[in-house]
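Reading a protein record of the kind used here takes only a little practice. Think of the row as the fold of the chain written in a discrete alphabet. A record is reproduced here so that you can trace the correspondence yourselves:
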Amino acid sequence: MFAAYAARIDREDPLSGLELGERPEPKVPPGWTTVSVKAASLNHHDLWSLRGVGLGEEALPMILGCDAAGVDADGNEVVLHSVIGQTGHGVGPRESRSILTERYQGTFAERVAVPQWNVLPKPPELSFEEAACLPTAWLTAYRMLFTNAGVRPGDSVLVQGAGGGVATAALVLGAAAGLRMFATSRDEAKRRRALELGAEAAVPTGERLPHRMDAVLETVGAATWSHSVKSLRPGGTLVISGATSGPNPPAAELNRIFFLELKVVGSTMGSKEELAGLLHFCAAKGVRPVVDSVLPLDRAREGFEKMAGGDVFGKVVLTV
């Protein structure tokens, strides 16, 4: 079957390790099932995999892709939860959880195998392309906002780095849920898009906001960390789920964190139950993922190049 996969690890030039071509059909252990992929979306996780983060040389070649929507063996339209082993379904009793492409082959292929437990019904209101955007970036944003940020309708939330998959998802979900959303970006066009998606204000990265925030969602890391901490009201919450600009900020801002009793909460992906909630929320409220572009699987390299260059607003989707 045709697939996009990591053939080599290159930390300096990750795209040099990306190959497109034929791969074996997926193995289907007991308790697993095969899904015919209709659409799959790119995440920064795929770029990190090509750099060898979470993916060792011994696991190569590895089909990339965490997210997918498709059709199961019984003809049902489905969405995949990409965290394998979260509850022990389909894996050994001592196996730790992992994300597709770390230990098991991913979704940038004609077919993918996952534990039956990881398959959820796709709401008919969502297209395959829309549904394929949800299980990683949108689920991460959903958990950050509604599980870990501790905010209520009317509260103010800052999203750093408008344009990325998680940041875009957070803006749309937060606005739909009655939160006052704010955004930053170095790019004027991305700030305009953030306003169109429901942000109350969008400012250049690092600039002063209209007022202090109840919560800040941080995926950028070192480049925006100090601004995130300084943007919070006393007792506010900073939720971090990534560090695309690096994990080591020049100043940790510890004095401000303890003196203002700020909360710093780590957040990773989300549960199957949260993904089901996200699917229902999008279907019931008319919320739809922001799609930057849709490409056929055989043009996956173009999608990777767009994402690596930061030339995206929303999700890049590959169709099979």
